[in-house]
Amino acid sequence: MLKKLLFLTLVSLGLAFPAGGLMAQGQLVNGFDADYPPFAFKDDKGVAQGFDIDCVNWIAEKRGLKVTHEAVAWTTIIDMLKNKKIDMIASGLSVTAERAEQVSFTKPYYTIKQAILVSKDSKLTLDDVLKTGKKIGVQSGTSDMAAMEKNNGQDGNDYVLVAYDNADLAAEDVVSGRVDAALMNDRRAPAVVQALAVKFLGYANVPEEDYAYAVSKDNPDLLATLNQGLDELMADPHWAELKKKYEIDQTLE
Asked: Alpha carbon 80 to chain centroid distance?
């Protein structure tokens, strides 16, 4: 009887339940990248933190739901969603045409650009990095890497991409000299510039990217619920508080 009441209550909130998701576990499961600050990451105690984590928690709380955040390897996260191992992805996920064929996206909530960082004492120019065969570190399995791969060899672009588990590791290797530059989103880059002996050189010549949340294509009710939640959150003062908390409106100089 309790399970039946839970089901009826959640249906009334406009949620559909994928197999292995909310119906089986009593809550939504969000897959996230544990190494993608400020949008999603694990703190020193292994607890999920970040702008997206807090946003989803706020949306769920307003609807009397709970969300479990499960760290997932970024290279497998879309497959995890398609195979119903997770219910959603809220973790700095870029909207791409390829991904849109596999999952359903919410409305965009943020737009980012790809920044290039080099060592503080570097004399390289942006053209040097992009057009003279230099090594650029980038997180594997990302739309960033896909865009850079697509551009390589076009319009004089000539570089060697080196894959990393996360962009911070690439920046560390810039300092050690293992790669010439690191590529990362311009929301993460300011904190890295402050923490490491690197500097912002400029933006890569790839398109800006919209971030959105993703659900499986057979879960339109959850999609609608997240879209409504994003509308409510963006209209609430808490939205500005979260952006300030995670410093995602910092500018690069």
From this structure: 15
**What percent of the chain lies above the pLDDT cut of 90?**
84
Phi, psi of 55 (to 5 degrees): -60, -50
Q: Would you mind telling me the total number of residues written for the chain in this entry?
A: 253
**Statement: residue 24 has pLDDT above 70:** no
Put the strands of the sheet holding 88-89 in their side by side order: 67-71, 28-32, 88-89, 214-215, 104-105
Q: Does domain 2-111+210-245 have CATH number 3.40.190.10?
A: yes
Amino acid at 225: T
67: nearest Cα among 16, 18, 27, 24: 27
Q: How far apart are CA 138 and CA 162, in angstroms?
A: 6
Q: Indicate the pTM of the whole model.
A: 0.82
**Single-letter amino acid, residue 39:** F
Q: What phi and psi values does residue 238 have, to the nearest 5 degrees?
A: -65, -25
Fold of the domain spanning 114-207: D-Maltodextrin-Binding Protein; domain 2 (3.40.190)
Helix or strand (DSSP H, E) at 239 = helix 237-245
Q: State the pLDDT at residue 252.
A: 83
How does pLDDT run across 106-146, given as a tens digit for each residue?
999 999 999 999 999 999 999 999 999 999 999 999 999 99
- pLDDT value of residue 13: 39
Would you list the domain boundaries of the chain? 2-111+210-245, 114-207
Consecutive H or E run containing 35: strand 35-36
Which residues on adjacent β-strands are paired with residue 32?
71
Q: Is-same-fold flag (2-111+210-245; 114-207)? A: yes
Helix (H) or strand (E) holding 80: helix 77-82
- Determine the pLDDT at residue 27: 83
